[in-house]
Target: F-box domain-containing protein
Amino acid sequence: MVDSYTLTFDLRPLRELNEDVLNQILKMLPEIAALKSLSLTCRRLREMVLPLLFGHFHYPAFSPDSWTPSEPDNFLPIAIRQYVRSFIVSDFCLDFPDEHNPYMPLTWTDNALLCGIFPGASFAARLRQLPNLHTLTMSKHNYTRHGLPWDTVRAILSVQHLRELTIDSFCLCPILRPGDNLTLDLVGPLTSFHLRRNHYQQPGSYPSEMAALTTVLGKLCNTLETLVLMSEPVSLPDIARLRWPHLRKLVFYGTPFTPAMPITSFCAGMPSLRCLSMKLNPAQHAVPQPLWPPGLTGPPLPHLERLVISYPVAQDDVYDHLPPTLRSLSLRCWPHVDEQL
Model:
């Protein structure tokens, strides 16, 4: 039996277990305290437990000092950095737009739309100190319109061993600072990119966000396998002109694109696409548009296995062009609404 403080059974049978089996058992332990207790028993168990204890690390950020080298070092302890594979950074910056106090003094930034607690160079340097980092999630603790400056975005993308990036509730470069140049010289081979937020944003609210996202996607399109985007800052014509040789999953959330573009146009450069999810929520009196307008000719998506359409149109010709590989077709509104009668 394993409790929070001690081990009360013979460890010899555990030492004789196959490493894969033992690893599965360790993953099933419900409490962190149990893993901590096991890590104190022997070297073998300690080496197996440490990646489970520190593999997913949540880090609250309150100021730029979190990333600045100092003595003593206020970043993660050096001994555990090698075990971090998923790094979730929560932004607790107080320099956000406040409609009730528009003259609120700013501490870390010169513009409330831009978060100032992730200075590009020092933040990227800290990420490089996590040698096995695979997934980075940038999240925000509130729903205010607050974004990452271009310097920060460019620095994150330069981390070569990073494979998955999620930007949650942030705007992506809502404004440009003087001297910002939307170019990317060196980016890591990301396979997954998510840009999502929980608050509504009028399409075209931040032209620089659309330009920045277009620049980012232009560099990542050759390696991405999963792409999840809010629709408002997306330029479908730019999506359509790019080649996406490895993209298998494409998800759009938000408001419908204006003007609408047929599926055969914006998916033309995605030969490996397996999942397409169009979770678009039209305005109250808007008329949903078909993905495949009547009379349009074009090649079907040859390998599509899952298709999600919110607010489907009965006259949509997409149903006449579904490939034989399709396994799942979902037709329901988004956000999903349940009504009890």
Q: What stands out?
A: The chain is about 25% helix and 15% strand.
